[in-house]
Amino acid sequence: RIRRAHQNEVAEDYVEMIAELIAETGEARAVDLAGRIGVTAPTVNATIQRLAREGLVYSQPYRSIFLTDAGRELAQRCARRHAVVRDFLITIGVDPETAEADAEGLEHHVSEETLAAFSNVIKNNS
């Protein structure tokens, strides 16, 4: 169970990063992912192969990496979840830089119920 949870976190981080790279530069390349995530190119390639088997990405040798519809949906959910956690932390007084860093770890473990409560706190303090 723990191993599967970690694989889910990795998948979420990768699809979110791929979406960010595509938005920023128009493409997501393995070398860019490796640099941003802080892993080796072979690690990225192995993870991309797994994500392709799971239907989240597709790529061709020596070409960019693309998100499938399912991958885009997952990336959007992750980005929304990250923003809610970050904004909640800022709302309760955590400085923005720390909130951004902490949200990266917390976002993978927050239930929908907790996210809704965080959103309510954010709305009530706006």
H and E string: HHHEEHHH
- Give me the number of helical elements: 6
Low-confidence stretches: none
Radius of gyration over all CA atoms, rounded: 16 Å
Number of strands: 2
Would you tell me the structural class of the helices and strands?
mainly alpha
User: Numbering strands along the chain, what is their spatial order in the largest sheet?
Assistant: 1-2
**Shape field:** elongated
Major β-sheet annotation:
2 strands, antiparallel
Proportion of strand residues: under 5%
Report the mean per-residue pLDDT as an integer.
92
Helix content: over 70%
End-to-end CA span:
38 Å
What does this structure look like?
The chain has 126 residues and is mainly alpha-helical. Helix content is 73%, strand content 5%. It contains six helices and two strands; from the N terminus they run αααββααα. It has helices spanning 2-25, 30-37, 41-53, 69-91, 96-106, 112-124, and strands at 57-59, 65-67. It has a two-stranded antiparallel ribbon with strand order 1-2. β1 (57-59) and β2 (65-67) form a beta hairpin. α1 (2-25) crosses α2, α1 crosses α4 and α4 (69-91) crosses α6 (112-124). The radius of gyration is 16 Å and the shape is elongated. The model has no long low-confidence stretch (mean pLDDT 92).
Key features of this structure:
single chain, 6 helices, mainly alpha, 126 residues
Task: Summarize the helices and strands and which ones pair or pack.
Elements: H1 2-25, H2 30-37, H3 41-53, E1 57-59, E2 65-67, H4 69-91, H5 96-106, H6 112-124
Antiparallel strand pairs: 1-2
